[in-house]
Fold this protein.
Amino acid sequence: MLVRLSSVTLKDGRWYEYVVRFLLGGAATLVAGLLGMLWGPGVGGLFLAFPAMLCASATLVESHERRHKSEAGLEGRRRGKDAAALDAAGAALGSIALVAFAATVLLVGSLAPWGSLVLASLAWAVTAACSWWAYKRIRRMN
């Protein structure tokens, strides 16, 4: 699979699906903020680091794939589940990269605030690319 940016899939969604994504993402952010107010920014940040859109995204990806298959006269349950699983795997790999970003900011942030942002972004990009490469390699071996 080649990773690329495409706006074509925006046409596949229905307006209410985008509203659901917005509301669930906003609710997850609100909960993270409330937890941060109660137990401090460290705890709130942990919950904010969770991909807020994952819950809505996985169900919407699954329903889109199922709908595409049903339009072709097939059931599409397996393909929908596989697409949602791939989406979740990407979120997990992205979360690993976010840990690298946070660790870099934690280690370098007080020494050079702007430099830590650049270095953390680089750490995120390298970690994300290496995680994706490792994931693809492991899947190929199975």
